[in-house]
Amino acid sequence: MTITCSKRVAVASCHDKINFGSVLQAYATQRALEELGVEVNTIDKRGLGHAISEGRNDYYLEHLFDVDLYRAKLGFVKHRIKQKLDADFGKKMAKRKSAFSSFESTHFSFTPQAASFEELGALVADYDSVVVGSDQLWLPVNIAGRYFTLSFVQPPVRKVSYSTSFGVSSLSEKYLRKTKDFLYDFSAISVREDTGADLVEKATGVRCSVVCDPTMLLARDQWASLACSSSIDVPDEPYVFCYFMGKNAWNRECAQELAKQHNLKIVAIAHPDEYVKADDDYADYYPWEAGPAEWVNLIAHASYVCTDSFHGSVFSNIFEVPFFSFRRHENMGAQSTNSRIDTLLRVLGNSDRICESKDAFRAAMANEIDFVSVRQRLNVYRNESANWLKSALEL
User: Which residues are CB-contacts of 323 (< 8 A; sequence separation ≥ 6)?
Assistant: First the structure.
């Protein structure tokens, strides 16, 4: 039962990206705060493109000769070009975009739009707190963009970080200093993974809490209710659900091996971030019109899940679907985002589901997941994190 109070909270999240995990964690943050009884609005950041781009563009200019940075962005650029040049591919991506737009318009309570940080600062002055989180919002380029650092929030409005991720395992000295500067007047700080806590401690000298992703603050029945709003039906035949964001072809081959062994179909969300040739012909069913609610529904009804996505692993655990968590990044360098999955599965007690090779995948296939234990661990993690959030908001 939700108990209302007089507190007003604004949320700075990544609600406007065509990314299933990003939108669902933004939705979950708003929904979890509503459950705590506060009046909550998600900040509509769609009018702030120019203001945010100024700092981000400076970052890219500063790293003009960083080959690895631009190589990482190349896939996104090719994805957009292919949508323009390939009419069929463009139509498929348009269906996905439409599904996301529909979800956004029906599941968020937005603030009015602001065109500048000054306007936004005035807009949130009437709130008690502004909460930033979750997702990879403190990537160096986002720190430069100044929105997710809550630079626009002025006292006495409280700044709170809930489960925010740096998205990387190390920062340069310059960005450690910037991190120290923007975290200085935060009232409460929590992050999503162990390496994030390491970075906060390195920057500020104080170790912060590691809490669960906001999607885990909502119980299974709450997500099942959202899944029921899905506009598409799940396949009649049992299936493996695949959600790969990386380019490793062997991940898809493992999914095919699993499907063949258990006589299952493969349902796949293809090309979520960039065009990957290996996505084109390994699955039996590609639901191009799937939005966030449909994505949750497809996981909920799957026989198995194969994914290299943090949120793919999260929802597999919430719905207790046997899963295999692949490495999106083969290397373990500073730009790797593997840490968040490592932390998640360590806390839930199923680190053996991490598949760094085909041999590791086959070893995982031979083992069952103790979901009774997972459920107990998840409940503890959820309750501890919810209590942290209550305290941070002074509820």
Answer: 304, 305, 306, 307, 312, 313, 316, 317, 353, 369
